Amino acid sequence: MSDLSLLVVDDEIDFTVFVSAIASEMNFTVLSTDNPLEFEKLYSPHINIIVLDLFMPHIDGIELLRSLYEKKSDASIVFMSGKDNNVLQAAQKLAVEQGLTVLGILQKPFRAEDLQNILSKYAQKTHARNFELIGSPSVSELRQAIDREDLFLVYQPQINISTRRITGLEALIRWNHPTKGRVPVSYFIPLAEEAGLISDLTTHAINTALKQMALWNENGLNLQMSINVSPKILDDLDFPGKLVKLTRSLNLDITKITIEVTESSLMPDVARYMDILARLRMKGFRLAIDDFGTGYSTLQQLVRAPFSELKIDQSFVKRMDIDKECRSIVEISILLAHKLGMKVIAEGIENEDIHHILQELNCDEGQGFLIAKPMLASELKPWIEKYSFS
Questions:
Q1: Above 50 in pLDDT, residue 274?
Q2: pTM, whole model, 2 decimals?
Q3: 143 in the same domain as 128
Q4: Domain CATH code at residue 79
Q5: How far is CA 282 from CA 206, 273, 365, in A?
Q6: Same-domain pairing of 314 and 288
Q7: For a pLDDT cut of 70, what percent of the chain falls above it?
Q8: Whole-angstrom Cα distance, residue 178 to residue 120?
Q9: For residue 344, what is the domain's CATH number?
Q10: Domain boundary among 86, 108, 133
């Protein structure tokens, strides 16, 4: 990241120093000022990220946002404020409507790791863009990777929030290109969807996950398995039958398999979409609505489709210990799901404070880096032997 630059604008000198130190440790070239009147002098089109306080004397953050809009700036913006979080949310919406890029928002006081996570997210997006612009794998290379089964799965453990006992795993697909290294999921999934390869990719993921589940069962490890399914294959009316046939051939318990569908994946043909989801549930599979709260439809889809599980998006869970609004969203989501007879799984549990809050809110299950990062199948048994369930 040594070629990335960052500008901090905050009238509180302590926060300017704090942000600058974190960004410098992450190898950003940093410019900073505690005087918003110096913004025009410091700004250049080459700056990648602007960390901007909203409430400042003489010129406030919204006025500087207007200046960035007029400049047609390509910089990504991180808003921060120690005041009303609603203003932060409004500023984010305004920036998006103006065609600007918002990388994140920070409610003061925030932790070093909160800013580090946001800046790391920018680095990951940059990595994905570099794949698109320079030497990115082609459709034919992806086709070859699917045919040769070069794609592989990692598994992230899920635990019972109350007992901390492992209950299941989420299967996640990865691609390690032989010469170009790790290909970001944010690149190859859209590539597969656009090229008409997503059905083959999803079939490969399902087959691999269920065969691995069968191997674990044979070794006395009887866990739930969650598998993400692209909306692009939820127009195949034969999909439920094919899945039942595969499951039975492996002697697996259908009720321990969860199909995860993202909120934003509502099909244009709603009747066909509902047909497939309903038949999956009738055959005994569990259905999870993934990334709840971030899609285009929330309550309508939640009530209309036969979901048995709700997964709360990590963007809310990660901040619920320092952000009252995020905590409220998580709490309401849990209450709503339980009222509808659904199990709740929280994504993004990264510290003990978040885990304790989820316990207080009666969340059922969870996953995140506090528990374990996604791991290879061979790493699961050693992890279970070392993991503390106390």
A1: yes
A2: 0.74
A3: no
A4: 3.40.50.2300
A5: 19, 14, 24
A6: yes
A7: 91
A8: 25
A9: 3.20.20.450
A10: 133
